[in-house]
Amino acid sequence: MAGWIAIPVAIAVAVFQNAKVGIEKFDWSRNLIYLAFLVSLAVRFTPGIEARMRDDASIFMGMLTVFLIIDRKPRT
Predict the structure, then answer these.
(1) What are the Cα distances from residue 57, in Å, to 69, 73, 75?
(2) Where would you tag: which of 8, 14, 20, 41 has the fewest CB atoms within 10 A of its CB?
(3) Which residue from 16, 14, 3, 7 is spatially nearest to 48, judged by alpha carbons?
(4) Nearest 5 degrees, angle CA 36-CA 31-CA 18?
(5) pTM, two decimal places
(6) Which residues contact 57 (CB under 8 A, 6 or more apart)?
(7) Number of CB atoms found within 10 A of residue 13's CB
(8) What pLDDT score was predicted for residue 53?
(9) Mean pLDDT computed over 53-69
(10) What's the mean pLDDT when you consider all of the chain?
């Protein structure tokens, strides 16, 4: 349940954090990758979803984790 609740919370946080930046400077690709990670995390830990789909979500989550580590933003 917490995995599914994290998705709308992440969307709300992204909107509030980037309200000052404006739509043209909003980092859409990174935020969509974060949302895809959260969805795959929620699918992975939901017991009512079939096992094959949870395994696929686990693989996808691993690929996204590696991508996010490699392509991290430098601290300013």
Answers:
(1) 18, 24, 29
(2) 20
(3) 3
(4) 150
(5) 0.74
(6) 39, 40, 41, 43, 44
(7) 13
(8) 93
(9) 91
(10) 83
